[in-house]
Amino acid sequence: MTRIGVVTTSYPRHEGDFAGSFVGAHVRALRELGHDVDVVHAPDDAPLFYRGGAPDAIEQLGLRAIAPAVATTTRLYREVHRRARAWDAIIAHWLVPSAVVARLAAPRLPLLAIAHGGDVYTLRRTHLMKPVLTLLRGAKLVAVSEQLRALVPGAVVQPMGIDVAHFASLGRAPTNPPTVAFIGRWVPIKGVDVLFEAMTHIEREVRLVVAGMLDGHHDATVIARYERPEHHHEYPGLVGAAERDQLLREASVVVIPSRVLPNGRTEGTPLVALEALAAGVPVVASRVGGLAQLPVTHVPPEDPVALARAIERVLDAPPPRQDMAAFDWRVVAERLQP
User: Fold this and answer.
1) Where are the beta strands (DSSP E) in the chain?
2) Domain count of the chain?
């Protein structure tokens, strides 16, 4: 039995919490493999890492993000330093601050450092990628997409996993009119506004469900500009696991209209794409980041007309169900060990 310390910023704080849910799933999978896993995560009162994701919060707050980021990193370091003497190895989710903290607090322990996307682009923007990779020399580096691997020399590619059996067992109950679903955070990188504009090019009656506002907040200006009377719009906010599962049962297509931000940042491999495919729901997604390697219907980013046409094609002729066994956590966790 290996004693593994997992260092992360986001981690589920309660049942159904999606913050860092894939880290929680990784921890469960490691325990099922027989490892003794101890988790150190950002404290619950660290909103920088829980409200919409740290990269988006940092971009919005600018210099005001420095103080809370330093405070949280310091608390992480102290906790890792205190606990690491009982560990045999460390897994760090996100290069910064987690992997940096792990290497500084326990430099002699084997380290697996996983780059998810926002961390990589933050390091590039601040010109800290080279010194961080120098600090992490000797660690096993993982990137969740091919595009990220190109930015993290020496990394291997491994998307996060999902519970394939769970999603495959959901069953299908598509609605009439068909449901076009978006499930994700309402932040610029997700391209929700592109989806709204695409819907103006779809004449048929559809049900559009946008499940992803932060704390119930949505952009009323965007909604007012693009809503059409022949479309049934629903905005349930951030949904729990049960509501997500029901939406996957009902959806005729899941749309992921992600974009590349002006600073070059884009998606890693969004779990909702893997979950939808495992549930048998067709996915239409921008050809960006890790989405480009998935078996989905691809469209160019920032092209609402192409997105609308792709949605209509999938509604008319759904593609065959995909085999997602390679993304099951029982497979992925074997690869994501120190």
Assistant:
1) 3-8, 36-41, 89-93, 111-115, 140-143, 156-157, 179-183, 206-211, 231-234, 251-256, 283-286, 297-299
2) 2
Cα–Cα distance measured from residue 210 to residue 215, given in angstroms and rounded to the nearest whole number: 13
Look at residues 158, 187, 207 and tell me which one is the last residue of a structural domain: 158
* Domain around 68: 3-158
Q: Which residue has the tokens 């939406």?
A: 247
Q: What is the pLDDT of residues 188-236, one digit of tens each?
A: 899 999 999 999 999 899 999 999 765 445 566 666 666 666 678 888 7
Q: Give, for 165, the enclosing helix (H) or strand (E).
A: helix 164-168
Q: How many CB atoms lie within 10 A of CB 112?
A: 21
User: Can you tell me the distance from the alpha carbon of 313 to that of 100, in angstroms, rounded to the nearest whole number?
Assistant: 46
Q: What pairs with residue 5 in β-bridges?
A: 38, 90
Please enumerate in sequence order all residues whose Cβ is within 8 A of that of 239, keeping only pairs 6 or more positions apart, or say none.
183, 211, 247
